Amino acid sequence: MALRIGCASAPGQARDNKTGSWRVFKPIFDHEKCTSCGMCQLICPEGCVLTDDGKFIPDYDFCKGCGLCAYECPAKAITMETEEK
Amino acid sequence: MADKSLEMVECGHRACGGCGPALAARLILKGAGERTIICAATGCMEVFSTPYPQTAWKVPWVHSLFQNSAAVASGIEASLKRQGRDEHVICICGDGATFDIGVLCISGAFERGHNITYICYDNEAYMNTGIQRSGATPFDASTTTSPAGKNSLGNSRPKKDMPQILAAHGAPYVATCSIAYPNDIIKKVERAVNIDGPCYIQIHTPCCTGWGFDGSKTIELGKLAIETGLWVNFEIVNGKLEKVKKVKRKPVEDYLKVQKRFAHLFKPSLNTTEIAKIQAIADANAEKYGIDLKI
């Protein structure tokens, strides 16, 4: 690929890199236990916890399965499960 | 007020799972806002967020060298000033670039009084090149250039006190924070970018790969560092200590024993002499900043 002058690139192109393939453990969100505090969204190092209709949903295209959200969730509403691929 | 829903760092960056600096990057931009220009030195964050052309940043982002991000930021700030523009100019650099290689340019920028905010994400070693010690590496931590073994107990020197060095430059705002307290980072960054003059923020960002712990415990490690007194969250405004996070202190072992870089202090046998030295560092911090809660 040709380099542009100054190696400039368009913003946010990292989205092309689907880091979800790195995952070994998958976070499962229990919406019944969830108190909507938003901690998982705030502390996700990927920034891949999305909100849909007031519910928090991880974007599995990018989630690396680090388990930080599950460890920190005050309502213990997230569990990590081994993922079969 | 900072917009906490603002996401200016895109998914798909190549940081390790549970990366402290990656979390810090997101939080910094929530505080700084979208009218921000970033100068970044070489470091882990630069490497994982910008392999060409897949940049994770959605704000203007300029890569300098290890040593000159503060000088590049000075130039950008001077140019914006001349054009009558008011974007925030911030540097985001690692501890290697800040504590060791970039000191000359940082000192120059602070002395000239540029309106920039210099943010150091402190993961306490050169992580992108394979965990070499830096001026920020704590006492007795094992790294690849200070390996613990028969003749060594790890890094033989204490951590450099960079916030005090920059406070001594007469900076209007110097603060430390930790990814363990995300809202605190957002608040402090927002405050710094709105102060006229050179401000410095140092963020404690535990590194699961370099320190040797599971990626799910990044925030817990940050909290333990504060609760043991080995990291202090404070704000120095115009040279005066304004706010300090007070804690009910835990013994330093609680923080050390969960990290592989300090494993040599516990195996094959408990090294009480060395742990006492590290406890003395925590005690000195507690004394200096008055972090102990009086009950």
TrEMBL record, chain A:
Keywords annotated in UniProt: 4Fe-4S, Electron transport, Iron, Iron-sulfur, Metal-binding, Pyruvate, Repeat, Transport
Cofactor: [4Fe-4S] cluster
Record has Transport as a keyword: yes
Subunit structure: Heterotetramer of one alpha, one beta, one delta and one gamma chain.
Gene3D superfamilies: 3.30.70.20, 3.30.70.3270
Domain of life: Archaea
Database matches in SUPFAM superfamilies: 4Fe-4S ferredoxins (SSF54862)
One Pfam family from the record: Fer4_2
One example GO MF annotation: metal ion binding
InterPro entries (UniProt xref): 4Fe4S_Fe-S-bd, 4Fe4S_Fe_S_CS, PorD_KorD
Residue stretches in coiled coil: none
This protein's record includes keyword Metal-binding: yes
Taxonomic lineage from the root: Archaea, Methanobacteriati, Methanobacteriota, Stenosarchaea group, Methanomicrobia
4Fe-4S ferredoxin-type domain ranges (all copies): 25-54, 55-83
Name of this chain's protein: Pyruvate synthase
TrEMBL record, chain B:
Pfam families in the cross-refs: TPP_enzyme_C
GO MF, any single term: oxidoreductase activity
Alphabetical UniProt keywords: Oxidoreductase, Pyruvate
Chain spans, region Disordered: 137-157
Compositional bias of kind Polar residues: 137-155
Lineage top rank: taxon: Archaea
GO biological process: organic acid metabolic process; sulfur compound biosynthetic process
Domain (Thiamine pyrophosphate enzyme TPP-binding) ranges: 42-203
Subunit-level organization: Heterotetramer of one alpha, one beta, one delta and one gamma chain.
Protein name: Pyruvate ferredoxin oxidoreductase
Organism in which the protein naturally occurs: Methanospirillum stamsii
Organism taxonomic ancestry: Archaea, Methanobacteriati, Methanobacteriota, Stenosarchaea group, Methanomicrobia
